[in-house]
Amino acid sequence: MRGAEQELRAGLKALRLDLSDQQVAQLLDYQALIGKWTKVYNLTAVRDPAEMMTHHLLDSLAAVAPLQRHLQKAGLEQGSRLLDVGSGAGLPGVVIAICCPAVAVTCVDTVAKKAAFIKQAALALKLPNLTGLHARVESIAQPFDVICSRAFASLHDFTQWSVGALAPQGAWMAMKGKYPADELAVLPPNVQVFHVEQLQVPGLDAERCILWMRRKT
Ligand SMILES: C[S@@+](CC[C@H](N)C(=O)[O-])C[C@H]1O[C@@H](n2cnc3c(N)ncnc32)[C@H](O)[C@@H]1O
Q1: How far apart are CA 72 and CA 175, in angstroms?
Q2: What is its EC number (predicted)?
Q3: ipTM
């Protein structure tokens, strides 16, 4: 087993994620694809493969079980639609598309080469549930059950720029580092936090949390 595969499998075990060999291979191929494209298109500042594993793959994988729990609770295990806002190289959207084949994932980014990379990843990794969209999130009006972001914007801007794309019963899933008390203090009145989860990313000694929000009625 290669070093990267060993580290990935250890991380999956720590996160209690049970993936098939094909999904593990897709995650490794995805990491290799980012490495290849980043040389030319500068998709991400992280270049070192070991750092890419912890800071990108495992960090995104840590959100998968919380997402699956949410979808199960909401009765959305099949046919749910997820929008990853400011997806960049596809984090966490591509990782979610690999781990959750029943979720239709759209990764949106204002930078054309990043959206093109997602389209290429969907083809190369054989992910029919993954779409790359070159747009500003503010322009999206079709409804999504979950809208997520990682390293994108403040909670205020994330929710206000994407509110037009949130299904009536939909939820925002914001991946954050430290608990964002300052951002929560200025949360818009139409948004309500309904759950906060602390995350432990294998191999990463850093604070991580997910904030779940919905429209206040
Ligand atoms: C710091 S990157 C984060 C990328 C990725 N989510 C990650 O965690 O590595 C933020 C991304 O948001 C995109 N972006 C900024 N404003 C946007 C908007 N209004 N709509 C869609 N994408 C946007 C940028 O082009 C950039 O790729």
Answers
A1: 19
A2: 2.1.1.170
A3: 0.99
33-46 pLDDT, tens digit each: 999 998 888 888 88
* pLDDT at res. 42: 80
- The closest-lying atom of ligand 1 relative to the alpha carbon of residue 87 is 6
Q: Could you report the per-residue pLDDT of 130-152, keeping only the tens digit for each? A: 999 999 999 999 999 999 999 99
DSSP state letter for 151: S
Give burial (CB, 10 Å; 0-12/13-18/19+) of 58.
Answer: buried
Query: What's the whole-number mean pLDDT along residues 60-71?
Result: 97
CA atoms of 128 and 183, how far apart (whole Å): 36
- Joined together, the tokens standing for residue 130 give 């993954």
- Which ligand 1 atom sits closest to the C-alpha of 60? 8
Residues 167-200: tens digit of each pLDDT = 999 999 999 999 999 999 999 999 999 999 999 9
Q: How close is the Cα of 164 to the center of ligand 1, in Å?
A: 18
Q: Residues 109, 87: contact at Cβ < 8 Å?
A: yes
Query: Please, which residues have CB within 8 angstroms of residue 45's CB and are 6 or more apart in sequence?
Result: none
End-to-end CA distance of the chain: 52
Asked whether 114 lines ligand 1 (CB < 6 A), one says yes
**Which residues, including other chains, have CB under 8 Å from residue 203's CB and lie 6 or more apart?**
7, 11, 53, 54, 58
Residue 108 CA to residue 87 CA, distance in Å, equals 6
**Cα 1 from Cα 208, distance rounded (Å):** 29
